[in-house]
Design brief:
The structure holds two protein chains of two kinds. Chain A is mostly helical. Chain A has twelve helices and four strands. The longest helix of chain A has 30 residues. In chain B, the strands form three sheets. Chain B has a seven-stranded mixed sheet with strand order 2-8-7-6-5-3-4, sandwiched between helices. A four-stranded antiparallel sheet of chain B has the order 9-10-13-12. Classes of the chains: A mainly alpha, B alpha/beta.
């Protein structure tokens, strides 16, 4: 696990031919063939896309000698996490804001979130980037680490593929309301525990009392059951105000307020990145300790 | 003024990306422009003359017995409603919006309807305007069906107007060769197929009396000297036409395949573009624009139109951007 995290921080996500992009194409092809306005069709498509790859990972690992097993596990987890890419996307936003260049900041944040960035002021740009770092920290890093710790490489693969399908199909729109139902629910289930552990980590490593207070009061108002605790606890841990109305495709959508304290600025983004980084270290230390206590040590 | 594709400068400003760094897929104009030669000084210097060889070359290219060169089919779209007594006009929808706009402005009673409704209720209309193949919705019609519709309208003194701006890659579907029929008006454009949108040139194919009235309305010298010069050569370049038809078809097929692979399944398309009706069109549009790729967004129905990427590098760029959007888990 340590090796995969180090590999990610050294290399970042592969630019060309990322297996997840190829998976996205596979899923697109499956959707084209199997799309029907039924939940069962969506579940079938999900199984067809995810299960063979998870089984393949498991089968390869079960056949492998220990060093091959180790290498495959490291590579699989490395491909499942995107810790460094969080910084690569968010740091330019913080830098541009710190330099007072709002246009560049808007352009950079446009690659992270799907909002009308032209309508955002400096503090709203900072809020969008901070929210994205906190939420994607949970999705792109801790979810995969959790399932890897629990089930090994097949767990990390399962998690990341499910997460990708949720991003492709998990929408409440006429096309996906039923077809995407399975993808959205499975992702909710897989994220339930890791999202809460992420929220707890944010709380422990930031302003704990404030984070727990925000989690308790604000998370239930948020429309996503897993993003709620993560973002509320994260905002509280940083003592910054997030959430609130945001412009999506020409319409200002009302969203609940998150966090408390100051309005976000460039510093909030940097602090959110640091919070995620510290939480990764905390998780690694805990997993190594746990493995050592249990006596295996293999997963670490 | 209505919204159109190709507003690159505005997008550059809005998304903070320099204009020359964009991949502009927002129009249906072919990325493979006919290679225009340098313009002789006389074309700039002299007044254009109507009786140069352009008409003969155009007659042969379009297969139409009578035609009138105009400053882009847009000029005809705006003038035709003014040549017509107050009428009930049925216009294909969703489709190129300038038609409805022009007929409305001229005070006609305008109904924007699907092709199925227009064909089924042809009796109800004095004038029917079709875009063939439709932009962006891709509707196609066969020649016999169109001629039958024309027959019904013409019997009552009505008009069938067919805007064939995107038909050059499939000329066998064109009605140009039938345009000697009273009440049939075919609009052609050189912007899309020849990639000469900047020349602002097009042709109207119809009976001489109508062309005469239209010419009176538009005045003399509708095409500039340089445009006439370039068109004469482009319309005569048969080898280029043949080669380009195959190339556009192949390129469009490749685009459809690429989009499908990313879950953006084309609803329809033609040789010049692919059109995806998608509830998250606005979000795809924004996410692509954030990566310097400009597409054309339609609000109703929510949809995106992708013009053809011009080379392998452009295809790769679109492919990478769509992959990156999936990977970055931008909530679309």
């Amino acid at each position: 696990m340590l090796a995969a995290v180090l590999l990610d921080s050294a290399l970042g996500e592969p630019r060309r031919a990322h297996p997840l992009v190829m998976f996205g194409k596979l899923a697109g092809t499956i959707e084209m063939r199997l799309h029907a306005d039924r939940r069962l069709a969506g579940l079938g498509a999900w199984c067809l896309a995810v299960l063979p790859l998870v089984a393949l990972t498991w089968w390869v690992l079960s056949m492998a000698t220990w060093w091959l097993w180790w290498t495959c596990s490291v590579v699989a987890l490395y491909l499942a996490i995107g810790h460094r890419s969080l910084g690569e996307h968010a740091q330019p936003v913080a830098d541009a804001l710190a330099a007072g260049d709002l246009d560049v900041a808007r352009a950079s944040v446009g690659r992270m979130v799907s909002r009308d960035t032209a309508l955002l002021d400096a503090s709203q740009v900072a809020a969008a980037a901070t929210e994205s770092v906190l939420e994607n920290g949970s999705d792109a890093v801790f979810g995969a680490l959790f399932w890897f710790a629990l089930l090994g490489a097949p767990g990390a693969v399962l998690y990341r593929l499910a997460n990708t399908l949720d991003a492709m199909w998990g929408y409440r729109t006429p096309r996906y309301e039923r077809f995407g139902w399975a993808a959205a629910r499975i992702d909710d289930v897989l994220n339930f525990v890791p999202a809460r552990l992420t929220a707890l980590s944010y709380a422990v490593l930031g302003h704990t009392a404030c984070a727990l207070r925000c989690w308790r009061r604000q998370a239930p108002q948020w429309d996503s059951p897993n993003a709620g605790p993560v973002m509320a606890a994260g905002a509280g841990a940083l003592r910054v105000k997030l959430g609130g109305a945001a412009p999506y495709h020409g319409v200002w959508e009302a969203r609940p307020e998150l966090g408390e304290g100051a309005m976000p600025d460039a510093g909030s983004i940097t602090r959110a990145l640091r919070l995620v980084r510290h939480a990764v270290v905390l998780w690694l230390v805990l997993v190594i300790l746990l493995a050592w206590i249990v006596g295996g040590g293999a997963h670490a | 003024m209505l919204e159109h594709g190709g507003r690159l400068r505005r997008a550059a400003q809005r998304f903070g990306i320099a204009a020359e760094q964009w991949l502009d897929l927002s129009t249906g104009i072919s990325p493979f422009a006919w290679p225009a030669p340098s313009i002789p000084a006389s074309a700039w210097h002299r007044l254009p003359e109507d009786d140069d060889e352009l008409i003969d070359v155009a007659r042969s290219y379009y297969g139409a017995p009578y035609l009138l060169p105009v400053a882009g089919s847009q000029a005809a779209i705006q003038a035709l409603p003014e040549l017509c007594a107050p009428s009930c006009v049925g216009i294909l929808a969703p489709g190129y919006a300038e038609h409805a706009h022009a007929w409305q402005r001229a005070g006609h009673q305008v109904e924007s309807r699907s092709a199925a409704v227009l064909f089924a209720q042809a009796k109800h209309y004095d004038v029917i305007v079709l875009i063939h193949p439709n932009n962006p919705a891709g509707d196609r019609f066969d020649v016999a069906t169109l001629l039958q519709l024309h027959g019904e309208l013409a019997a009552r003194g009505g008009w069938l107007i067919v805007d064939e701006a995107f038909i050059d890659a499939t000329p066998e579907h064109s009605l140009c060769m039938h345009s000697e029929r009273e009440g049939l008006i075919v609009l052609r454009s050189v912007g899309k197929f020849f990639g000469l949108a900047g020349a602002r040139a097009g042709f109207v194919c119809a009976v001489p009396s109508l062309l005469h009235a239209l010419r009176e309305r538009l005045g003399p010298w509708t095409l500039s000297g340089p445009s006439r010069h370039v068109l004469k050569l482009a319309l005569a370049d048969r080898a280029w036409h043949e080669q380009m038809r195959a190339r556009l078809q192949a390129c469009s097929k490749r685009l459809a395949l690429l989009l499908s692979g990313h879950g953006l399944i084309p609803t329809a398309g033609c040789a010049f573009f692919q059109w995806c009706s998608n509830e998250r069109a606005a979000a795809w549009h924004e996410a692509l624009a954030a990566r310097g790729i400009l597409t054309r967004l339609f609000a109703s129905p929510a949809s995106l139109r992708f013009g053809l990427p011009g080379d392998d590098a452009a295809f790769d760029r679109l492919d990478n951007a769509l992959g990156e959007i999936t990977l970055a888990r931008v909530r679309l």
